[in-house]
Amino acid sequence: MSIHIGNLIHEIIKKRGIKALAVAGAIxxxxxxxxxxYHRETIDIDKLIRFSQxxxxxxxxxxxxxxxxxxxxxxxxxxxxxEVKRLQSVISQKEQxxxxxxxxxxxxxxxxxxxxxxxxxxxxxxxxxxKKKK
Length: 134
Fold this sequence. Notes:
Blueprint: H1 5-16, H2 20-27, H3 31-38, H4 45-55, H5 61-64, H6 69-124
């Protein structure tokens, strides 16, 4: 991997105008250690995490753009993308089914309302087909 993480961190800090003393306090190292880190090609993961948090930048991403992580990451992304598309299709089908069932439910509610209305009319008057008692 040809990433010089110290240079990358230094460039970000320089662009933001952050002083080395502030960086040192944020990542819990001495000011002289900060300058040493700027010249290092690699740093400990715990320091990289602290720099990422302090700068609000994912400093691990450049490593995913280099082989072999690039291929591994790409395969995982493709796999996840395929799964997301499949799940979106399932969701779409379920939403269509919900819409159909809501329409059916609405029709059934209308039918129940009409039947209750008819039942009310027949219970108030003599039901058809029955004879009045004399």
